[in-house]
Fold this sequence. Notes:
Blueprint: H1 27-41, E1 43-45, H2 66-83, H3 87-93, E2 98-102, H4 105-119, H5 124-127, E3 129-133, H6 155-158, H7 160-169, H8 174-181, E4 184-186, H9 192-209, H10 220-239, E5 246-252, E6 255-261, E7 272-275, H11 288-296
Parallel strand pairs: 2-3
Antiparallel strand pairs: 1-4, 5-6, 6-7
Helix pairs in contact: 1-9, 2-4, 7-10
Amino acid sequence: MIPEGCTINQMLLLYRHGARYPTSGAGPSTFAQKVHNATVAGFNVTGDLTFLADWTYKLGAELLTPFGRSQNFQLGVEYRQLYGELLNNFTEQDALPVFRTQSQDRMVKTAENFAAGFFGVPEYLNQVNIEILVENSTVNNSGAPYEVCPNSNIATRGSIGSALAAKFANNAFNATLARLNAQVSGALNFTATDAIEMLQLCSYETNALGYSKFCGLFSEEDFINYEYYYDLVCLAINISKPHTDHFLVFLLQQRTWFASCCRPGQGFPARVACSLHPHLPRCDLRSEQDFRQLINLFPSEPVHLR
């Protein structure tokens, strides 16, 4: 809410899309194919895994879920309540506001559902201009810079976080995997990759279908490790995207340390104010080596603040 005595002249909202189905060929569908193949070969399950005997994959791919559509609509309603008076600026200039979005279906539908909540139906059809930015390697797109950033799609630079996360996951779910593998026999055996994919199914099925039996397979500690897995993924993916401004907060050694990545230049972010340790000076990330040194400061396991 706007503090008493203050006014807002402009509001900027930046986000990519609402809740969605998994990417085609991603972990959830890969796990589903593994279960299908094991079904053909034959397997038996007991205990917590009994549901797998007749489980089928029901998720879509790429698009917004029904909940995702409602998220965007409700957000539009909320922002109309909070900032609707800013429309007076456009009315006075006889102009329409512009909402920018990327060209993938879930991003376009995100903008449209937000606009429907903000302006109403069918009013949003003629009260806002929705500008679609094409996601293609030949077109500049500030909302999807990975298409025009050469480093982004080089695994050793753009996917450092995924490698770190996979290394962490190798030993993060040992107790749970031992328990689950004791409840299955035949052509099915679970690995650390499967643990991540089943946790993803917990997330996606709950979001899309309202409930997932995969959630009950895991402990609170597993969910903490699952969250940390994505902390590692996003840390390295996001900090290494040279066309994006970032704001990162690191929780290390039960101490909150702060890293603010300023306007980046070429390659890796040209200047990063790093107070990652009370005794470390401000530092510049000018190379991949500098970046990897920063990554090495990140703990190898979750830090739990109590």
